[in-house]
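User: Predict the full complex structure for these chains.
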Amino acid sequence: MDLTLIVIVVVVTALIFDFTNGFHDTANAMATSIATGALRPKVAVAVAGVLNLIGAFLSVEVAKTISSGMIDESRITPVVIFAGLVGAIVWNLLTWLLGMPSSSSHALFGGLIGASLVAAGVGAVHFGTVVTKVVIPALISPVLAGLVALIGTYIGYRATARADRGTVTKGFRAGQIVSASMVALAHGTNDAQKTMGVITLTLITAGVLAPNSGPPFWVIASAGIAIALGTYLGGWRIIRTLGKRVSHIESPQGFAAETAATAVILSSSHLGFALSTTQVATGAIFGAGAGRRLAGVRWGVAGQMAIAWILTLPAAGIVGAAAAWVASSGTVGTIVVAVAGVAVAAGIYAASKRKPVTAENVNDVPAPQPAEPPVRIAA
Amino acid sequence: MSIAWGALGTVVIASLVIGVALIALVSFALVGLSARSQPATAGKRGLSPAAGTAVAGLCLAAGALIVGYGLYVIVS
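Assistant: Here is the predicted structure of the two-chain assembly.
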């Protein structure tokens, strides 16, 4: 296969991954804003899409460090990156079908690691770096975001206990517009850059770009547009899970959750931890639910999510490894992987049509214990 | 394999302080704003509408500073 052709295929696949990343993660910024009515569903996804696009242009720091020493770039080829991306896309689509807010970043890392293991051997993956840069932040960040949201929610309800209800609800809704926008912006700077980094890495391995060069403008622009379009499409299934199935979220909780998520994402990306926006946002929503009323949180849903999170890295890795094994056999193998990937994607899309979740019905889920009036923590 | 405990600790403390402070500031601002629609009545502690507005303004200004710093962190 012609070198340029495989490079084009990888770039397109990376942009498709970026697109799935977008709709998979709309919920991070907007789930609670949609659930509390701070923003109408269509407006929320439009705002998130635009801010993701702007965020993509704000910084290229994460893109430059995407390899971050996890994988030995000198030992992999564009075909390996292609196989890794297929693994990440398949896992992202599957978890979306199930409405599970799993980490797109972990799917990407898992796919690339699995593909590299098969194609280049154990030596091509630096497991120490994987543990310190990916696994440990993944364990700490959701708990931290949950703790911040829990304390914030508690203080928020206590401080405003005697204040005018209408003013408080309206005020926190207004605050949510700002806090949700910050999450969307931070998401754009983080996740769009991961795709830019992958494309840049491919161009470098193919010899199109000089080593150590930053992403060219067309890469930044196309990655930004792909994630913005995905975000605008809206992953309504995951928005429903996070906004409605975790807990009955009120506007002070939504504001606390989004603020906590932003604080954790910004402070850790400032210090170079590649954490998952999804896991941080999810942890924050659980914290905010528990901050008002511990029993108001559906901990069973938390258990399902924890399982999805633990599975993400290895599952995407296995798909990536299988894809790399087939694709490494030559041009025919690569075509087989591409066709199989498209077939799986089409199957998942067809399955999603049987019970569609859209902007219109995203909030139509009975919240946990809807009959009971909300009980505030005694002042 | 070296784990950067120092950096992790910084993340934990910075997130806790900034996140909680921001939520508290907005809460206090809303308590202040409530004084405008629900003035203090006899026997009940409360702020005058003017004082409430001032408190709200101060808290929101402080919150805006933190958000501005967050934007600065994203861009830089």
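The interface with chain A takes residues 1-4, 7-8, 10-12, 14-16, 18-20, 22-24, 26-31, 33-34, 36-38, 67, 70-71, 73-76 of chain B (CB under 8 Å).
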